[in-house]
């Protein structure tokens, strides 16, 4: 599956039916993702034999009508765009001077359907934000330990009779992820293999019962105030 296909499927999972209902005209999310890739390719600069530097602060300017439609997707859109930019940079061997920041901005001077991308290279700290994508919903992992299962005591509750009340736990120490099966009745799979305890690298797929869980880690710019920079995922 290509990067753009992966992006579109990820966005459809994240927003469900709102995706098809909202984007029948004007700028399409796929067009934004393609514009961001072009911007990276255009602005990437060779700074040494082993390093190609790409801009990490990207502003997407849209007509007010297009911007309003994009706003209906909320943070899911920028999360998916960030993930795509990460993957494209890895494939092209680009490096960033800091975390990725993608901003959508309304521009009265632009006609509907037109996209303009401005980019800058900004040195700064990176925050690695882990998330779980489950049945079209994205769950940021705000704690160091997150329990997933069908019981009300779980942090993320599943409507799946094939899962235990407390089925798995996801551990995140700021740089690395781990997943543990909490003695579930039906067991768990990580990337198709059964496990009881395992390291959890980015883009891993966990299967419990009928539920498929995608673990992602997004490299984003540290907010101007608050928060502590963290090392990269391994």
UniProtKB/TrEMBL annotation:
Domain FHA: 146-195
This protein's UniProt keywords: Phosphoprotein
Pfam family, one: Yop-YscD_cpl
SMART domains with a match to the protein in the record: FHA
Record-linked PANTHER family: NUCLEAR INHIBITOR OF PROTEIN PHOSPHATASE-1
Full protein name: FHA domain-containing protein
Species the sequence originates in: Microcella alkalica
